[in-house]
Amino acid sequence: MLKRSISFLRSLNLMRLREGIQATRPTSSQLHHMISERKRREKLNESFHTLKSLLPPGTKKDKASVLTTAREYLTSLRAQVAELSKRNQQLEARLPPAAKEAYNEEAAGSSNERVSVTLTQVVSESTPDQDQQIFDLQVVLRSVECCTEDMVIRILEFLKQVNNVSLMSLEANTWMSGSDSNVNRVILRLRVDQGTEWDEAAFQEAVRRVVADLALNNCRNQ
Amino acid sequence: MLKRSISFLRSLNLMRLREGIQATRPTSSQLHHMISERKRREKLNESFHTLKSLLPPGTKKDKASVLTTAREYLTSLRAQVAELSKRNQQLEARLPPAAKEAYNEEAAGSSNERVSVTLTQVVSESTPDQDQQIFDLQVVLRSVECCTEDMVIRILEFLKQVNNVSLMSLEANTWMSGSDSNVNRVILRLRVDQGTEWDEAAFQEAVRRVVADLALNNCRNQ
DNA sequence: TAGAACACGTGAACC
DNA sequence: TGGTTCACGTGTTCT
Asked: Which nucleotide does the CA of B17 lie closest to, via C1'?
């Protein structure tokens, strides 16, 4: 009903312009002017609509409301960005202790391996005990489905079977990486009684097989 | 130079309206209408200017340019917020919740209970999401026989049954305390989807029962 | 000179 | 019934 009246008005003015030929008026340029102004208005309204579509959905369709809420929303976003980057900086400053390894892993994402296992001996200057050694075992698993719970459970149950290692401490994290895959990282500090035989490479390979098997099974189930 | 012509136009039209008295026209309401429209335009232009002042300083003063660059700037800010909060979440997940050692000692030392479970909500100012909350669950178990592996496994398997909580990070330690008993401490950072019902006390009690049951069984077995 | 941008007053529609 | 918002055509200035 609104569109119809607008079209009516337009045709009416067009008629008037065509009648102007009798009145010997330079309507040729006036018509261009009219059309240009019309185009300009359409373009402006278009921008108004697209801008409104980006604002929080409860916004009024008023032009004034669009402008003011755009202003408010913009300042709000700015404040969010400032606060987030500040918080981010704080977090990154506090991070160094253990996260560099994971950071390296993330940066080394060029490797397409879904599971990586590294085993490094901890040289503890405080207790240079000869009959037992301490190792840090880090397991990183990239997977869509595997949850950290299953991963930790599997590793711990495997560890219980190995009778000359005991768990000192354990740290596990999970976070999103890229589009949809998430990264599970587990770091275990192990005390190894050196009395019996201890094959470092074999142990590491066994852990790798356990985790890879878990990933395969989970992918199969879902 | 522009202002002068505008003022001239205004006075001219005012004169025309006053002449309308002779023509017996109801110009009383027309004048109000005119003034209202004028006010509306001023207000709108004001909003345009204030909006432009918030945009990057190189912006054209065109109304169309203001609208389009506002749109672009807004989407850019949105993307920044999304990326920052994502990065922030990664950092927070990787940050061990170990800043409460003193708090742990206090909670563990005051009570003679062999198992203590504390659940504290993490107020994250960076991601104030309403539909999900973050909790730190700390479980401390004094026992002679129970190894940390069993404790972690039991807690994680219980957690898998609760379907609206997911594990963000996990930290476990064990150390000697006093003569022969050792202390196992597990701290879990949990994300709780607030959609369903969430009884904090019930959850805490359930965890306590699970761990206490584990301790009893292990003592019986050994 | 052509074209873009703006402010203006006015009629109409919606509450 | 007024109050508010909108689209329209037009005149003017700047490039």
From this structure: C9
Report the percentage of chain B scoring pLDDT > 70: 70
**What H or E segment, with its residue span, contains residue A1?**
none
Nearest 5°: phi and psi at A171? -140, 130
DSSP 8-state secondary structure symbol assigned to residue B82 = H
Tell me which protein residue sits closest to nucleotide D10, measuring alpha carbon to C1'.
A34
Range 31-60, chain B: CB under 7 Å to any strand C atom: 33-34, 37-38, 41-42, 45
Domain that holds residue B166: 65-221
Looking at the domain assignment, is residue B195 inside a domain?
yes
Specify if A49 maps to a domain: no
B139 touches chain A (CB under 8 A): no
Specify the amino acid at residue B52: K
A85 in contact with chain B, both atoms CB, cutoff 8 A: yes
Helix (H) or strand (E) holding A117: strand A115-122
> pLDDT tens-digit profile of B54-96?
999 888 999 999 999 999 999 999 999 999 988 887 777 666 5
pTM value is 0.59
- pLDDT for residue A136 is more than 80: yes
In total, how many domains does chain B have? 1
Q: Within a domain: residue A87?
A: yes
* Residue A17 at interface with chain B, using a CB cutoff of 8 Å: no
Å from the B6 CA to the C8 C1': 8
Q: Which of A193, A153, A139 has the alpha carbon at shortest distance from B151?
A: A153
Residue type, B51: L
Residue A45 lies in a domain: no
Q: Which residues of A172-199 are buried (b: 16+ CB within 10 A; e: fewer)?
A: bbbbeeeeeebbbbbbbbbebeeeeeee
**Residue closest to D9 C1′ by Cα:** A34
How far apart, in whole angstroms, are the C-alpha atoms of residue B184 and residue B151? 8
Measured between CB atoms, which of A67, A80, A88 is closest to B51? Answer: A67
Among the listed residues A36, A65, A37, the one whose alpha carbon sits nearest the alpha carbon of residue A52:
A65
